[in-house]
Structures are given as structure tokens and as C-alpha cells.
Amino acid sequence: MKITQLFKIYWPDNGGGIAKVMESIADGCEGCVREIIVCQDSRKKKSTDDSYRGVAVHRCRQLFTVASTPFSVQFLREVRRRTKDSDIVVYHFPYPMADLAVLLGLYAGRLVVWWHCGFEKYQKLAFLYRPLVKHTLRRADCILVSSRGNLEHSDVLRRFRRKCRVIPFCVSEECLRRGQAYAEAAWREDWEAEKRGWKPVRILFIGRLVWYKGCDVLLRAFAKMSSRNCQLVLVGGGPLEQELKRLAASLGLLQVRFAGRVSEEEKMRQIERCDFLVLPSVSKAEAFAVVQLEAMAFGKPVINTRLKSGVPYVSVDGVTGRTVTPGSVRELARAMEELAADEKLRREYGANALQVVRREYTPEKMKQRYRKVFRELVEGHENCI
User: Fold this and answer.
1) 28 in Cβ contact with 366 (< 8 Å)
2) Partners of 258 in the beta sheet?
3) Quick one: three-class SS letters along the chain?
């Protein structure tokens, strides 16, 4: 079986959540012919053919970028050339150049569209992009989403529901292994720490500092907390970093630290040190947030928001943490107060979180789901249901 994946970026040039999914598909289909077609992250770079961790990666030269979309004629040529003998073509949505390739009929093989999120970020051009998207979804043999919430709350996907399958994201084997070892040791140490006396409660945020992450809401909620034995650490960089630092200063928040971008190793250390994670996102542009799973793998509770996406389906209110109304400073402050004050509750939510991750969100589970979908498509099923 030959599987070709399409998107605009990939490791090591750039990555993120979608690149992790692409890597998980490649890893899960070991033994197949695996190729990835992307654009370079700079128009100064020429097209190259190389490999990343044993997978062929074809990087196409971009001409220019509009609305976060790198345009590349070479990308269209490579799709036509590389998918001639493909059994499965996985398009990681959204990337309008891939939609154009579908429109022009440049691909061969069964088309799987991985719907990572809607196209809110193309809002100004939505009237032009929407017909292209609908054409792609009509042509798709299967549509994958990471959560039932992303399917239920998408007006665009509703009419294509019979083609859709849910394949949740997963955490890495290293995260699972390290999280399990940490949780078992940490719960013993917590009981000993209680005997020794006071220790500050560490609240953690991990993510890009962009508008839809709701970090301004987080800072205002932290300022409203009556408890003064809490520390807030924000891990990640982005265009709003300086603005958020100014907001923290104007609110007089001395117990807030901006850690900036960190390595995967440092990210796991930050999760180990925290008492709970907060994901204060305010838009369904936040479709899933794998960072929730990463925290849960370490036995950490999560506070998230009731978005019309997959976010509240990952960490469930009253089971693995708390869920609040997006943008509500008052509700978020109250939830943080509750977890900060109740270590027994944190331990209960954390234990539940660890069980959920090990049952539903392992790499092996994800690989099994991929293989089942791809096998059904290649065997000639009309669609993946």
C-alpha cells in the first residue's frame, strides 16, 4: 500500500499538532510506501527531496504567501506526479492549495480528508473558499475528525456525516512512559509534602500566544483569585507575548512567569512541576488541544472551556477536571480557586485522567484505527463507514 500525505508544513522546518498527526500516520503504516508533500517555509528555498525519520518528504518551493497560505505551482506538480500510484491520499485540511489539486483532479487513489479544524482563519475569504471546500468533501472517500464534538458542531461537515469517522489524537509513547512513572512517584511524594507543610500551587498554560488561546482571560482570572499561594507559568511564544506581559504588569501579577518556547523535554518537566493545566481557549479554532492529553498522561487535572469543538470531549467536566464558559473570567477564576484549594480533588481528577489516556489515547490505539479505515478503503468499500 502506498500512502501520500498533503499539507503545507512538516518537520523539521515547522510542525505543530498537524505535523504530529502526519508523523503518527507514517509511523502507524510502517511497511507501506510512505510519502509526504509539503511546501518549504520560505520562498528563498528550492524544492528538495529528502527524508525525515525514514519517510520520504518532498518540499516544494513556495512563490508567495496569502492569508497564511503558501502558494506553490511545484506543489501541484508534485501531487500529480507522486500520487499516480498511491492507494491512499491523506489531505490535512485546511490548505487551499490541496483543495485546488483536488479541484483540478491532480491526485489518484482514495482521498481521505483529515478535518483538523474549520476555516475561520480564512473568514475574509470564506465566500470564495467555501465552494472549494464543499467540492473537496464531495470528492472525499472518507473524512476523519479527532472528536465527536468537531463533527457535531460543524455546519459544513453535517451534510457529509455518513463519510465521517472519529479517530482521536494520541500522546507519544515517551509521554505515556514518563507520565506513568511520574504519577506513581508523585502521588507518594505529595502525601509526604503535605506533612512537611505549605507549598505553592503551580498553574500551567502551554500553547502559542495567539488570540484564540484566551491567555488574556487567564491572566484576568488569575488576578481575581483570592488565594495568594499560587503561581502561573505560561509556556509558549507568539505574536501576543509582549502584549500579555504588559497586561500582567498592569494587573500587578508578580506570581506570573512567561517561560517562552521550550523543548519537548522542558515541556514535560513543566507538566511534572504543575498541579493542574489550564486551557482557556475562546474559539473553536482550538479543535482538540493535544496538550490536554499530555497533562492527563502525567495525572494532572485540566481546566478547559465549553467550546463547540473537540476540546471539552478530551478532558471531561467533573471527571478529569473542570469545564467553564469560554471567555468567562469569573468562571475560570472560580474553577482555578476550586482546584488550588482542594488537593484531594486534584488527585481524584488526575487519577481519572491517567486512566482515560491509557485506555483511549495511546499510539497503538490510533494506529489500529488508521489501519482499519485505510484497509476498508483499499478493499473497495464505498466509503469508510
Assistant:
1) yes
2) 234
3) CEEEEECCCCCCCCCCHHHHHHHHHHHHCECEEEEEEEECCCCCCCCEEEEECCEEEEEECCCEEECCEEECHHHHHHHHHHCCCCCEEEEEECCHHHHHHHHCCCCCCEEEEEECCCCHHHHHHHHHHHHHHHHHHHHCCEEEECCHHHHHCCHHHHCCHHHEEECCCCCCHHHHHHHHHHHHHHHHHHHHHHHHCCCCEEEEEECCCCHHHCHHHHHHHHHHCCCCCEEEEEECCCCCHHHHHHHHHHCCCCCEEEEECCCHHHHHHHHHHCCEEECCCCCCCCCCCHHHHHHHHCCCCEEEECCCCCHHHHCCECCCEEEECCCCHHHHHHHHHHHHHCHHHHHHHHHHHHHHHHHHCCHHHHHHHHHHHHHHHHCCCCCCC
Distance CA 286, CA 284 (A): 5
For the stretch 42-79, pLDDT in tens is 666 778 899 999 999 999 999 998 877 899 999 999 99
| Cβ contact 236:207 at 8 Å | yes
Query: Which amino acid type is present at position 291?
Result: V
Q: Which of 57, 60, 58, 63 is nearest to 43 (CA)?
A: 63
Confidence class for position 195, pLDDT limits 50, 70, 90: very low
pLDDT value at residue 385? 40
* 112 phi and psi angles, rounded to 5 deg: -110, 125
d(CA 25, CA 20): 9
- Do the beta carbons of residue 213 and residue 287 sit within 8 Å? no
Cell numbers for 375: 484497509
CA distance 294 to 200: 22
Mean per-residue pLDDT over the chain, rounded: 91
Residue count of the chain, please give it: 385
**Which residue matches cell numbers 491526485?**
107
d(Cα 14, Cα 379) in Å, to the nearest integer? 34
Q: Is the dihedral of CA 62, 65, 70, 75 positive or negative?
A: negative
145 vs 118: CA distance, rounded Å = 11
Q: Which of 106, 102, 275 is nearest to 200 (CA)?
A: 275
Strand partners, 38: 59
pLDDT for res 13: 77
Distance CA 328, CA 280 (A): 9
